[in-house]
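User: We ran a pulldown and think these components assemble together. Before we commit to crystallization trials, I'd like a predicted model of the whole complex to look at. Sequences follow.
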Amino acid sequence: MIRKGIDVKLNVKPVFVGLVHKHVYEGSCRFGKDDELTPEYDAMLSHELSKSFFEDADTKLCKDTVNLLEPVYLERDDRWLHQEEDFLKMAEDEPNVDLYFFSFGIARGDIFIEFVQRVKKPVALVPGACCEATLNTCAIRNRGYECYAYLTWDEMNRHLRALRTRKVLKETRVLLAPRMNSNRAYSSTDNFICIEDLTEKFGIQFRYINAHELLDMSQPCGEAGNPTLPGRKAYNIDDDDIKEIYKITDELIAGAEMNTMERDMIASSVRAHYTVKKLIEVYDCNAFSIPCPDVCSTRRLNEEKYTFCLNHSLLNEQAIPSACEYDLCSLLSLIIISNLTGKAPYMGNTTPVALEDGKMVSQLWFNEDDLEGVKDIENLYLHFHAVPNRKMKGFKEEESPYGITPFAHSGFGATLRHDFSRNIGETITMCRFAPDAKRLFVGQGTIVKGVGYAKNSCTEGLYFRVADQSDFFYKQMNFGNHTSMVFGDYAKDLQLLGEAIGIEVVVA
Amino acid sequence: MTEKSLKERLLEAKEAANSVIAGIKQGLGSGEIKSHSDLADSIQRYVLHKYLLDEESMHVISLKELAELSVARSLKLDKDRAVLKDSPSTCEGATSAMNKKVLLLLAIQRDLGIEFQPDKTAGIETTSDLAEAVWNQLK
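Assistant: Here's a predicted model for the assembly, 647 residues in total across the polymer chains.
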C-alpha cells in the first residue's frame, strides 16, 4: 500500500489547565460576588470551560488536517505549585504529538513554559485566548520555541494545513529513475544544487532505480530475466497486470469527451504508469520523477511506444506527486501545493507573453491566433505542458472533463487534455522552489484563455493575466522555468508554509 | 423598566424557588417522589424561577438555552444591572450562560443539602440531567 502524504494527519493534543482557589477572597487579580469566590465554583467552572474547549477542538478543527489525541484536564490552585504528575500526564504520548493545543487563563503560563522547555514540541493557544495569547506566545518564542496563537478558528485551520504539509515533507520518500546524473537531467538544469540538502532541511528521502531497469520491468519478463538484471527475478508486468492495464485503458477511453488515439497506444502509456506505480509501492515511496531527454535519447520510449506524461497525470490526480523531466524543484512544489490545497496541481512551463508593436511575439507553437477574442493582451503569461489531470478542482471533487491526444506525432504517448477555456476568469496560484532550497516563488494570475486542448504534445495550457508581467518575470528568473499550478488563491497559505519550514517566500 | 422592578422580580423568584424546594422535600418525605422523573417537573420550575423565566419556557430543557434566555430577559428588564448580575467575574473566559449554570448548581446544592462532583457537573446539560443528578444525590 502506498502511504500517501495526503493521508498524513497532524496529531494534536488538547490540554486544559484550570485554576481552583483554595479559599474565598478578593484581591488584585481576583474579584467576584458570593458563590463566585468559592472553590466549588472554580472547580465546576473549570470543568465547564474544559468541556467547551474540548468540544470546540473536536468540532472546529478540520478533520482532514488534524487527528485529535486524548485531551488532558489539569487543575492548579493558588499555592502556585508545579506538580510533577501533571507534566508526566501532559507528556504521556509525547512521541506521537505534533502540536500541543492549550487553553488556560491567568497565572498558568509558568506551567506552559516549563512544559514546552521539557518536550520541545510546537504549541498553540486556543483562539480568543484574550491576554494569554500574546502574553504566552511571546514568552515561548523569545525562548526559541515554536508557539502559535490565532484570531479565529479559520486562521488556525489554515495554519495547521501548513504544519501538516511540513509533516508530509518528513514522510515523503521519492522514487527517482535517473539514467545519468542523479542530481539533475538535461532539460532541468534549474534543479536543486544538492538533493541531500532536502533531506537535511525537510526530511525528504530519495530512493533510486535505474531507468533502464524500470523500462525493462514494463514488459513481461522472459525466462532469462531482464537484460539489465539477467537471471534475477524483478517486478515485471505480468499477465494479470496486463488485464488490469486494459481495464484502466478502456475506462479512460470511455470517460473521455475527445480521443484521437488508438486503444493499444493508450494501453502502452497505461503500462508505463502501472509499472511506475508498482515500483513506487515496492520501494515504499509516495512520489516520483524520471527524466525526459536522458531517457528519450535511449530510443527505448519510441520502441515501447510510451512517454511518462499519462503516468504523471494519473499519479498526481491520485495524490502521488509526480514530476516531469526529473525536475525536483517542481516535484517539491507539487508536494507542498497539493497537500496545502487538497487539489491536484498542473506542472508546466511558465513563460511571459512578449509583445512587439502591440502584437504577441510567437514562441514555439503559440502565436497571436491563440488570443483571438482577448481584448487586452498586456501582462499575459503562458503555462503549458502535457500533464493536466482530472482532479485539479480537488481530490474529493468530481473528475473534470478531459480529452486524450498523443504526445508524439506518430501516435504514441497518451496525454490527458483539459480545456482551460472553461476556466476563464478563475484565479490560479503557482509555486516553484529555488535551486538553493532556501526560497519559494509564488505567482498568481487570472485565466484569460485556454490553448492546445485538441492538439498533441506539450501544447496544452492556458494564458493568464498577472498584475505586473515585468515583476513576475524578473522574480521568476531566480527560481526556474516550471511551476506547479492550482486553481484558487493560496499565496497566504504558501507564505505560512514558508515560515513553518524556514524558507523565504517571494510573491509576484 | 425600573431598578425596583428587577429587584421585585428577583424577590418573587426567590420565594417561588424556595417553594419548589419545600415541595421536593415534602415529596421525598411522603414517598411521593420515587424517581428522577418524578422530580423533573419541579426541577424545571426551580430553574425557571432562578432564571426569572416564565411558563413559556417550560418546554425548554437545555440549561444553556435557558441561561441564554435568562440573560436576554434580564437585559430587557434592566440592562446595566443584568450585565453586572449575569456576567462572570473571573478572567477565565467563561460565558454568562456558563456562569449562570454553575451558580444554579451551587444554589440547588445548598437548597437541597447535596453535593455534586465537580468533574461530573459539566455533563449536566438539561433539566432532565439535573433531575437525575439531584435524584442520585438524594436517594
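The first helix of chain B runs from residue 3 to 30. That may be worth checking against your pulldown data before setting up trials.

User: Thanks, that helps.
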